[in-house]
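Input record (one chain):
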Amino acid sequence: KKDVERLKGFLGYLPADRRYAFEFRHESWWDEDMFSVLRERDIAMCVSESADLKCPVVCTASWGYLRLHKLDYDQTAFEEWAKTVTAQPWSEAYVYFKHDEGEGSGPPAVEAFVAASGTSRSGR
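The corresponding structure, as predicted from the sequence alone:
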């Protein structure tokens, strides 16, 4: 559960010249207090989606980090996620899919997402 003071203390140990992304798997973390702590250091809140959890899309850094771990993404879902990602003010975004068999995950998911977003794998 959320402990902003502990998070601040931990961040004090991290070198400032690197990028960090944090994934919070409990809803208590998803509030403005925590978002502002991450924004102060340009730390990305990992946007994650799984079968049992979907966190909000909140921009806390100049770049984005997403973990999309469902196995059943279809074309509509890829298009929705592509719209969501490209609508953010991020300079770049790292989007990861669950690496499993099937059309909705792994390399096929990457190809479908790239096609839906209109970008290349490198974002250019």
